[in-house]
Amino acid sequence: MARHGIALTRATATARLLLVCHASTPAVRAAAFPADEPLDEQGRRRAAALSRHVDPGARCLTSPALRARQTAEALRLEATVEPMVRDCDYGRWRGRSLEELQAEEPAAIAQWLKDADAAPHGGESLRQVLDRVATWLEAESRQPRKTIVVTHAAVIRAAILHAIGAPPPSFWRIDVAPLSRTTLTVREGRWTLRSIFPPSAA
Q1: For residue 116, what are the contacts with CB-CB under 8 A and spacing of at least 6?
Q2: What number of helices (H) and strands (E) belong to the chain?
Q3: How far is CA 25 from the centre of its chain?
Q4: What pLDDT is recorded for position 188?
Q5: Element (H, E) at 99
Q6: If you write DSSP's letter for every residue of 101-159 in order, what string do you get?
Q7: CA-atom Rg of the chain in angstroms
Q8: pTM for the model
Q9: φ, ψ at 181 (rounded to 5°)
Q10: Which of 13, 60, 99, 194 qualifies as a cystine partner to 77, CB 3.0-4.6 A?
């Protein structure tokens, strides 16, 4: 009976991920492709206010980007840098606004939005981001533990698509706001989207 009880516990153990989108930055407010910029003052303040809503005892990971690490610090989390949850590499578009690029390179922007394998900016394609995040989630699914991950809107969108089995075009139909919180759980290798909390108004 004891062995059977242990086996049952392992079989039904659940891993839980709380994905926190980093706080606002000048690039977010300008609708620009991010460089490695810091948080703006409002982002820092709102992240600090959100700290009471996260579990400081959970395992914590963060993207290597400055904006993600500063968000983790504001949330009072001792987070380990995890390269697999880094933002998409936007190549030569980093630091430039979408409006500016649509005026200068409309064909390239259109190709990028329609073709998951396109990377006209010289960085990562959407397909590469989706595959990277899926690989990371597969590794996480093997460990029954609670983890808080401070990352980026693109990574969270990719994780949601993987969890619900949605096709790549659905990526562009998911809005992930700064400091929003998305919960995913996995049981027996199958991910489930549990909840999405909007950012705090604080």
Answers
A1: 125, 126, 127, 130, 168, 169, 171
A2: 8, 6
A3: 16
A4: 86
A5: helix 98-104
A6: HHHH-HHHHHHHHH-TT--TTSS--HHHHHHHHHHHHHHHTTS--EEEEEE-HHHHHHH
A7: 18
A8: 0.91
A9: -125, 125
A10: 60
pLDDT value for 9: 39
Nearest C-alpha neighbor of 87 from the set 143, 22, 138, 140? 22
Q: What is the largest CA-CA distance in the chain?
A: 69
Alpha carbon distances (Å) from 26 to 8, 59, 72, 148, 186? 49, 29, 18, 24, 35
Residue ranges and CATH numbers for the domains of the chain are 14-197 (3.40.50.1240)
Tell me the two tokens of residue 127: 């397909």
User: Which regions in the chain score pLDDT beneath 70?
Assistant: 1-13, 200-202
Sheet containing 190-197: which strands, arranged edge to edge?
Answer: 80-81, 59-62, 146-151, 15-21, 181-187, 190-197
Residues for the chain: how many in total? Answer: 202
Residue pointed to by tokens 């703006």: 40
